Amino acid sequence: MEFDTIAAISTALGEGAIAIVRVSGEDAVEKVNRIFKGKDLTKVPSHTIHYGNIIVPDTNQVIEEVMVSVMRAPRTFTREDIVEVNCHGGLVSVNKVLQLILTQGVRLAEPGEFTKRAFLNGRIDLSQAEAVMDLIRAKTDRAMNVAIGQMEGRLSKLIKRLRQELIETLAHVEVNIDYPEYDDVEEMTHSVLIEKAERVRDEIRKLLQTSKQGKILREGIATVIIGRPNVGKSSLLNSLVQEKKAIVTDIAGTTRDVIEEYVNVRGVPLRLIDTAGIRETKDVVEQIGVERSKEMLQRADLVLLVLNYNESLTAADKELFEAVQEKDTIVIVNKTDLPQKIDLDEVKILAGNAKMITTSLIEEQGVDELERAIAELFFEGSLEAGDITYVSNARHIGLLAQAERTIADAIEAVHNGMPIDMVQIDLTRTWEILGEVTGETIHESLLDQLFSQFCLGK
Ligand code: GDP
Ligand code: ZN
Predict the structure, then answer these.
(1) Which of 79, 94, 123 is the last residue before a domain boundary?
(2) What is the ipTM of this complex?
(3) Which domain holds residue 63?
(4) What's the gap in Å between 307 CA and the centre of ligand 2?
(5) CATH number for 100
(6) Residue with CA nearest ligand 1 atom 2
(7) Is residue 230 annotated as involved in ligand binding?
């Protein structure tokens, strides 16, 4: 494919001492060479880096001292010629360099355009391209590892294998359609068909089962801390937040007034919701009311219900237990440094399947155990096995669920003795749907939408 030459700043703004302007396209080397004083970049070998100055061509005025890498197609990220200008100065000088490059008739890249080209030029498939985006957004090492695994094509490989198996299965169906007069062939085909289709279905199911964990790694476990006033909610929040200095950012949530904070608990990102509310008011349950707490609960993947070891259970406590019935909950009985007044047997009965942990946050007791409980609740240790292929992307999950339904239809059709061409349709459809994950069968507008979510310069 032929594209124009594009450029963008490809390092995160304000981060690090070196900023890079990336230029990709047929004219990349020639265009940068016009404003570079040093070696003739059009003559240097591919994949080499060169010291020199960026100059305004007309005046010879030096803009910036730089290192320029020249990488020629096809062994580059976009499979086009790429030139990267490494600037030492800050934002201002990197911007000047970019502006100068743009005045040479290079177009400013759209967000995600480099990655889009990598995809369109066949360098990476779609799920890998999406992984680039995940990688940029990854909040913990584990999330990053999942993204890297996907970028390296782990998911793509699996999907490709499943599609291959479907093709082979379809070939069996073809035989059956072409030679319907042979009863033996039909017999054999049906059993082979079912066996193969079931294997593909099982693999799709297995992948779908990782989606809860995948989604969590990608988006964080939406966590809500609830409890009566003074039981230690803020203290719990603070010990989760302070111990892990890995809080990434405060980002504005989807709803007004809701602050979300990320905490890295043993590689599991917790997304603490409405912590501002907990921080600012002393009486969350009383002030915002149980109704409001329930609203918060609806959006939670995980509820941390805090009780006071030093007080007996109250009606409000019991109401909170009622409200969390349907949720993954960990019950925390706090203030064990004080005399026991709570009836722990009663707590256990109310907790049901939920894990109960005792803490003294003031003495920093029990937080470790709590963190372990959180990790176990969501990953049951399975995350330690590094070779699992996770699906975390909502688009992939949707497609896989669709594929699972379609292949289940195919299997049922065979069982019910439906005409074999019906089965063929379902299997072909499954093959197509799986192809959308890797982008082998995909529509143009969807592509634009996907790539526009990327950061600039990627
Ligand atoms: P919240 O209203 O539920 O957010 O509770 P806070 O976290 O603000 O704590 C209320 C009070 O209990 C504060 O004075 C804390 O210092 C105190 N507190 C928190 N955890 C403990 C604990 O484990 N032991 C004791 N003795 N006091 C605690
Ligand atoms: Zn508080």
Answers:
(1) 123
(2) 0.98
(3) 6-123
(4) 13
(5) 3.30.1360.120
(6) 230
(7) yes
